[in-house]
């Protein structure tokens, strides 16, 4: 298993890989090391035949696996024995998907630094090179680069505690991972302008009403909801899901007529797959399709 400085990875037998951005003390800010690890991992998972869909979330509350639960209850028990049930000041919970690019890392840089390292171009690989579906489980702040990262995913499911925004203007800069473009396509010019120019944050509910996210769920359920969606997708034929994602994404890059033509050709191409034969014959025979991913 690969080891990471800034990420946690869990691969489930269902074919779902769960990645957590794991810098909770910095609200999962996207330092370059984190972005590099993330892009490399996504590209590896894309080639890994045991992975069929991917969930991306921020480390912190809402993430449950057996090991974590065990240690959590152990810690609660020990604390109870030591201090009794006396109420303590509430611990600041980890509450971010990602609070954006790492401001402290960027602060000393000048134009030539960011131009030469072509800062954030690496993140384009997520949008353009990862072919398997990625579901963002936004479990808190998704600001600046965090909002942009969520928007490079294919589906966004938000916790009712999530907040979205492009506050770069408050730092004397502008979005740099596609925010001005993807946000505008997602919610329209006037709303995108308002968010980018004021730096205001919006609630998950507002993001849902504006069509930025597919739905809002109670905070503690956000990861499970995303996993459920990922598991549903994992039960489909992988190549057909990839073709489908490619077709939807084309709508951002082409005129309607070109996009429809692109879709038609991809639709035709599915008839060269074993899975189209399997899917249609299973329907006729009232059986469940057994995909061969071929
Ligand atoms: N970069 C680096 N560190 C960050 C960070 C970021 N984007 N966001 C939060 N942190 C750090 C804080 O500095 C703080 O660290 P210390 O404990 O060492 O001081 C820690 O995370 C916790 O943050 P806060 O104490 O600020 O937490 P809060 O609950 O009071 O506020 C917040 C939360 C409103 C999200 C606030 O942290 C904040 O405004 N963060 C910055 C958000 C932002 O401006 N994002 C855009 C970044 S620029 C960008 O993303 C460019 C681009 O398009 C690529």
Report on the structure:
With 294 residues, the protein is α/β, with parallel strands linked by helices. Helix content is 46%, strand content 14%. The protein contains 13 helices and 10 strands. It has helices spanning 32-47, 66-83, 103-106, 111-116, 124-129, 145-152, 179-187, 189-198, 204-209, 222-234, 238-250, 256-270, 274-284; strands at residues 7-11, 16-21, 53-58, 96-98, 134-138, 141-143, 155-159, 163-165, 201-203, 215-217. A 6-stranded mixed sheet has the order 1-2-3-5-7-10, with helices on both faces. A 4-stranded mixed sheet has the order 4-6-8-9. A hairpin with a 4-residue loop joins β1 (7-11) and β2 (16-21). The longest helix has 18 residues, at 66-83. Mean pLDDT is 92; it is low at 62-67 and 86-94. Residues 26-27, 29, 99-104, 120, 141, 143-145, 148, 167-168, 171, 175-177, 179 line the site of acetoacetyl-coenzyme A. InterPro entries: ClpP/crotonase-like_dom_sf (IPR029045), Enoyl-CoA_hyd/isom_CS (IPR018376), Enoyl-CoA_hydra/iso (IPR001753), Enoyl-CoA_hydra_C (IPR014748). GO terms for molecular function: hydro-lyase activity; isomerase activity. This is Enoyl-CoA hydratase/isomerase. Keywords: Isomerase, Lyase. Belongs to the enoyl-CoA hydratase/isomerase family.
